[in-house]
Amino acid sequence: MDSAADSPLLTSKHVPDNAHFTGDVHDIPPIRGFKDFLVQFGVESKKLWYLSGPLIFTSVCQYSLGAITQTFAGHVGTLDLAAFSIENSVIAGFSLGIMVGMGSALETLCGQAYGAGQLDMLGIYMQRSWIILFVTALLMMFLYIFATPMLLLIGQTEAISHAAGKMALWMIPQLFAYAANYPIAKFLQAQSKIMVMSCISGAALVLHTFFSWLFMLKLGWGLWGGAVVLNFSWWFMVVAQMAYILSGTCGQAWSGFSWAAFSNLWSFVKLSFASAIMLCLETWYFMALILFAGYLENAEISVDALSICTNILGWAVMMAIGFNAAVSVRVSNELGAAHPRSAKFSVLVVVVFSIIVGILLAILLVIFRHQYPAMFADNLEVQQAVYALTPLLALCLIINNIQPALSGVAIGAGWQAAIAYINIACYYIFGVPLGLILGFVVNWGVEGIWVGMLTGTVVQTVILIWICVRTNWEKEASMAGERIRTWSGQKGGE
Q1: DSSP letters along 421-440, please?
Q2: Contact 124/254 with Cβ under 8 angstroms?
Q3: CB-based contact 257:131 (threshold 8 Å)
Q4: What is the mean pLDDT of residues 421-434?
Q5: For 265-279, how does the pLDDT look when each residue is reduced to its tens digit (9 = 90+)?
Q6: What are the angstrom distances between the C-alpha of 248 and each of 251, 255, 306?
Q7: N or C: which terminal CB in the chain sees fewer CB atoms within 10 Å?
Q8: What residue ranges are annotated as transmembrane (predicted)?
Q9: pTM of whole model > 0.85?
Q10: pLDDT over 90 for what percent of the chain?
């Protein structure tokens, strides 16, 4: 790779004429003192929160769809709560990890192409991603169909396996909504068209909450009513976002359906697969936490308590996911526009805010530690188990608010394949075995499983911080330019 100074990608002819792509035509100047730092921190903070504010709201709303269904299930019965928790965390969680992971390749390509001013490629990338994700959904459908025997095979109780398997069959439409939604989301995020996503997600959440209460509790439909409403809510968001795109509001980024989407598909599959491995390893990690709890004595109580904690953690992590998406857009746009210093500085700003938000959330949890368990379950034994897990949950809120933001940096820069190897080592070679030893051998139960797996997350977070500090961002900008030329069909010397 040529040095950054010699790279043609860092010359002015490659900076997009449209200054609105990244907010600046030029890279930020070198920071030479504390005053310069404060000025640039303020500027970058405004850009980050302009993106992350609506994205956090969107992420919280979309996550809350399943979380609210789970909350109502907790008031239907302990078996219903355990069944939905297993379906939502294991079956849907497994599928969601794959869908979001496959879609993150689109996040890298769309963000960098947008930063470079190649708007016409965004629609093509989205259509390629649709093709790949819908084929993936067809394959994943067998997991839903055979959920009961699979859960029995891995040792879940017969009652939970049959109830969760029935729920999985009802949730197949949600699987295809995932396939449609995530490419649309990445397409809109890359262009910073996030307010419309927030409005649609907010409307879906309001409707979902009312109809979930009506069907699950008032009419007494139980999990069947929850499945109907949850499927409808996800497809409502897909149809509304697609209507926005087809209305012509995206300009050059959407020029209609094109046969060009079928070109270079295999290369797109490989990049999507690397992205999927990276994010799936993170998503499945917490899925495994619920799964292992099902092997403990008094499995229903253990699964219920841990699912409530991961439900709360999931809501908090949605804020981090907002930072994840925002910094991914910032880093990919700036690297695409050949602004390495701006990309590097955006990483620093997002880490600072992630730490602050995580600490504030942990403080709130501790303050209301006596009240919140009753919101999620009527069973007093479950409430006591949740209360006992509160210190661990508070610590998780801090750590798991930083890690997703750093993963967003990796997506924006296109490091998915390298991060996948780190995730395998930290999570599955180190974290999972340690959790199983503490939980089952040392007999610490749920707390031991969680402590071990949380340790794996801490190690992974430290490594990601070290990578960001050591990165040559000028070289990353050069590589982003080469990636844009490759995926737009241009030759290297053109």
Answers
A1: HHHIIIIIIIIHHHHHIIII
A2: no
A3: no
A4: 87
A5: 776 777 677 667 766
A6: 6, 8, 45
A7: C
A8: 48-69, 89-109, 130-155, 167-184, 196-215, 221-247, 268-292, 312-333, 345-368, 388-406, 418-442, 448-469
A9: no
A10: 15
What b-and-e string marks burial along 54-84, b requiring 16 or more CB atoms within 10 Å of the CB?
Answer: bbbbbbbbbbbbbbbbbbbbbebebbbbbbb
Q: Using the structure block, give the residue that is written with the tokens 């019965």.
A: 77
Q: Do residues 430 and 458 make contact, with C-beta atoms less than 8 angstroms apart?
A: no
| Residue 491 DSSP SS3 | coil
CA angle 40, 325, 247 (to 5 degrees): 110
310: closest CA among 386, 362, 205?
A: 386
Dist. CA 135–CA 195, nearest whole Å: 30
Within 10 Å of residue 233's Cβ, how many Cβ atoms?
A: 27
* Residue 332 in tokens: 């990919």
The span from the CA of 434 to the CA of 369, in Å, is 28
Task: Tell me the one-letter amino acid at 478.
Answer: S
Burial of 123 from C-beta contacts in 10 A (0-12 / 13-18 / 19+)? buried
Residue whose tokens read 């699950």: 216
Q: Could you tell me how many residues make up the chain?
A: 494
d(CA 32, CA 99): 43
What amino acid is encoded at 350 in this protein? V
pLDDT of residue 53: 86
Task: Yes or no: say if 125 and 344 are a contact pair by the CB < 8 Å rule.
Answer: no
Nearest to 118 by CA among 107, 110, 126: 110
Cβ–Cβ under 8 Å, residues 216 and 257: no
**Sign of torsion over alpha carbons 435, 441, 444, 445:** positive
Phi and psi angles of residue 339, each rounded to the nearest 5 degrees, phi first: -120, 75
Residue 391 neighbours by CB under 8 Å, 6+ apart: none
**Cβ-Cβ contacts under 8 Å for 133 (sequence gap 6 or more):** 99, 102, 103, 178, 179, 180, 182, 183
In angstroms, the CA 451 to CA 456 distance is 9
